# Entry
Amino acid sequence: MTRVLLTGAAGFIGSHVAERLLARGDEVVGIDNFDPFYDRAIKLGNLGLARQSPRFSLHEMDVVTGPLAPLLTPATVVLHLAAKAGVRPSLAEPGGYVRANVTGTQAVLDAACEAGASRIVFGSSSSVYGDDTEAPFREDAPAGRPISPYAATKRAGELLLASQALHRGFRAASLRFFTVYGPRQRPDLAIHAFCRRLSAGQPITMFGEGTEARDYTYIDDIVTGVLAAFDWTASAPVGVETFNLGGNETIPLSRMIETVAAALGVTPRIERAPRQPGDVRLTSADLSKSSRVLGYRPQTPFSEGIRRFVAWFRETHAHQ
# Structure
């Protein structure tokens, strides 16, 4: 049994990771500050299954102010997923994103160092690649021109970890997540928002020309990749490696809408609007490195992932 400090435990990805860790016998110390970006009740619901386990504990705290170190031991693995999320909202509140995502990440690294914990997995984002990286995106691309404050803070978090790993003795992985979807997806994200509006007979807004494309990645595949990186740190050398975790298929926005509508059995009514500031035109993961080092191979085709999401959405809303 491994003791894990999991920040952002009540979030979409964090809650799924917590369940998988518990299912395989690990102990999970969950941290979440229940940021009001979306409803607290949704986040508590995310943890419904995890909170039934005697090996799960939940601590409501901000990673910036902690204190985190008393929750750590030298053998604890730190899985840092806490972040202020959202590309578009970050344009309106960059300072808040710097505090949560940059200062917060540094606070986590300081706590790990203080406690003597050396294994760290950091949740980053494909948004760090910006709009000028050649596709498919490789981890050794410069990633020096993010186009939103959110993306900039995630890149800053990666750099903080990389700049300290060697002299602090961290064995670490930075994971660049590519557009994660599936049950419990945040309600503001496109697939969830489109599903909600389409099922209510409302029109949806398509920003851009419909050609903008994402490497959508189903939550089960992301969690598998997170745990593979988690296990890799047990024997990794001191330092940090960066890994893409994507779905291995780039889907245009127009096709995403068609797939969601087909799964719901409706004909979409689409209103068009200009592409939004901060939104990249394309994400496309080169999975060569993560496949070779972590054995990561996504298993869920996009159409199947959407079918599962719609089934979850209908079941969830049937009980409301």
